[in-house]
Automatic annotation (TrEMBL):
UniProt entry keywords in alphabetical sequence: Cell membrane, Membrane, Transmembrane, Transmembrane helix, Transport
Membrane topology: Multi-pass membrane protein
This protein's record includes keyword Transport: yes
Name the UniProt record assigns to this protein: Major facilitator superfamily (MFS) profile domain-containing protein
GO cellular component, one term: plasma membrane
Length: 409
């Protein structure tokens, strides 16, 4: 594969995967419009999000199994076609019970038939020495796509007097995009065939790879490394915004502006720069450890700097760059963790199930901390970030030392 074709495929799959998640997470952009258009309560809308997240969590292992049985081309095409149908169904503004069914199916077809094939596809696009750049650029592209899509849809919604009618048009446009992406998957993604050995059928191969991945120490090391990293990252993405309003006293409009800068500017810089630097480092695990060390310093400073508003805001921006950089490259440690290329699909399913489990309990715990006492609650949150950064560093060092020992260095 030529470098130009590889780069084109990397951008294409990143754009497609970036947009496919937009509709399931539509509430992040158009919360009030969804309440009005679908006649939902806050509890019902929140429950839909929880249902989606829970289904997705249990579909990660399924995704690894399917990616070993079918090519990414087939699975991604199925994902986009089904998402087109589900989004059109949602555009009819059905009742809450029907929305529950739709969000269950959203969870399945944006995870089981998409996530592991996407990770496998990106990892196979380059050598082990290029993994940081591949995953970093892909993460940055997904950030760009999310930002552009969000702002364009927001602008389009403003053109309609009736926000409900405007949202229906946005859903129809999304249907068209999903159909287009299905066609692009068929035309441009390589036609690969997943086969078992002479003794094994593809089904048997899928199960054997899962068993092999489960027996691999590197799978568990990387899984709990990503789990710890995600505990840090998810804390930052969920709570730094509200920290600026509830503790620093910044206005909601300024906080939103800072959130946009963090989520759409910093994430792009972190993805591109982080990927390049990770590949230049002697070890991606050690490179990530350095970033986590910076997060520990930032979190510790925030505990004592709340009276200095400008300084605290700068610290939150630095912290955002650090954790988004970690997020952009942490899947690139799979090779260093001792996971063979042929076990990427099975291992990704297992790793992702463990890594993203914090979504099921973190916000409940931290919400209760903030409700009890905002200042003390956020200090507990920063201590949480420090604690899991330390755990991540310890696991990163173990991964690094095991890798050195395996190579006889």
């Amino acid at each position: 594969m030529s470098k130009g074709k590889r780069n084109f495929l990397l951008v294409l799959i990143s754009v497609m995967v970036g947009i496919i998640y937009f509709i399931p997470y539509l509430r992040f952009f158009f919360y009030d419009q969804m309440l009005d258009g679908f006649h939902l309560t806050n509890l019902q809308l929140g429950t839909l999000g929880s249902i989606y997240g829970l289904v997705a969590l249990f579909c990660y292992p399924v995704s690894g199994y399917l990616a070993d049985r079918f090519s990414a081309r087939i699975l991604l095409t199925i994902s986009f076609l089904v998402m087109a149908g589900l989004t059109f169904w949602q555009s009819t503004f059905p009742g809450y019970n029907t929305l529950v069914v739709i969000y269950v199916l959203y969870g399945f077809f944006t995870t089981a038939t998409l996530w592991s094939p996407y990770i496998c596809f990106v990892r196979h696009l380059g050598t082990e020495e290029e993994q940081g750049k591949l995953f970093g650029v892909s993460e940055a592209m997904r950030g760009v796509v999310s930002a552009v899509t969000g702002f364009v849809f927001l602008w389009m919604l403003g053109l309609f007097v009736d926000s409900v009618g405007g949202m229906q048009v946005l859903l129809w446009i999304s249907v068209g995009l999903y159909v287009l992406f299905a066609a692009l998957s068929i035309v441009f993604l390589p036609k690969t065939e997943v086969k078992g050995s002479k003794q094994d059928s593809p089904q048997e191969k899928g199960m054997k790879n899962i068993i092999k991945a489960l027996k691999l120490p590197g799978t568990w090391l990387v899984a709990f490394f990503l789990f710890s990293c995600f505990c840090v990252i998810n804390t930052g993405t969920n709570y730094l915004g509200t920290y600026t309003t509830q503790v620093l006293g910044v206005s909601a409009s300024v906080s939103s502006g800072l959130a946009i800068f963090r989520s759409y500017v910093i994430v792009i810089a972190a993805g591109v720069l982080g990927g390049i630097l990770a590949d230049k480092a002697k070890s991606r695990a050690i490179f990530i450890s350095g970033l986590l060390g910076g997060i520990i310093v930032c979190a510790a400073l925030l505990i004592f700097s709340s009276s200095l508003v400008t300084v605290s805001i700068v610290i939150t921006m630095v912290m955002s760059f650090l954790y988004f950089t970690v997020k952009s490259v942490y899947y690139s440690v799979m090779g260093e963790g001792g996971i063979p290329l042929e076990l990427t699909a099975a291992a990704t399913g297992i790793i992702s199930f463990i890594a993203y489990a914090p979504e099921a309990f973190m916000t409940t715990i931290m919400g209760s901390w903030i409700d009890a006492d905002p200042v003390v609650g956020f200090n507990k949150i920063f201590i949480w970030m420090i604690s899991f950064s330390v755990i991540s560093i310890i696991l990163a060092v173990i991964i690094y030392r095991r890798h050195k020992k395996a190579e006889g260095i």
